[in-house]
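Quick start: what a row looks like.
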Amino acid sequence: MRVYQPSAVLFLHAFPLNKDMYKYQFEAFEKEGIPYVAVDYPGFGEERNWPTDYSISQLTDYIVGKLNSLGIKRVIPIGDSMGGYIMFELWRRYKKLISGFVFVSTRAEADTEEAKKARFATIERVEREGKDFLIEFMLEAQTSPKTKENRKKMEELKCIMNKATEEGIVKALKALAERPDNREILKDITAATLVIAGKDDEQITPPEIVKGIADGIKGSLFVEIPNSAHLPPFENPEEFNKIVIPFIKENL
């Protein structure tokens, strides 16, 4: 089978979710005739675990390999949280692929020593107790009050998170803890850039942290989306799509 699609949107999911967090975008983009590719990271969604640990850099190579196999030459990545770290790596080493960027609820800074310690403590606990405590914490920390009121949506989110394997969670946490600091490349980003924060994201990436990306990239646009915390594409898809679709059409 051969697929030739010169340009597409590339969906990169947050931790500990999978590509289904973008289900509302798939629907809207299909209506608009916007081509896209959505991937799962190893041990999440439909992607099997890798036998070894991996870095954000190796994960990026793997994703680029998938794009190459589809004949895709240019992408606009939409990356929420962990997805944003892959986007920085794409710019660092695969600039020619990039037509634009949509950074969502992510940060340019590396983990502090304290944050690294917390990740490794979480790894130990997952290895000891399993993943349920982490899923419960993430459901609480990543969603806005408005999302929490929607029982159906919260249940759906839990199902998406529960597809993550414990091994996948552990390996992703290691990759997150060891990722590089990306602040120094912000000034070099020349691609059209949209930066989105959830207005209610108090615990994971508060809007002022996300805004640091927009402040560092010349000519970028920063938008806060109401009634969403860490997962704006899933929590408030109407507002998210209204902002993102015109940007995609202009730059793809």
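That is the whole record. The chain has one domain: 7-251. Residues 7-251 form a domain with the Rossmann fold fold (CATH 3.40.50.1820).
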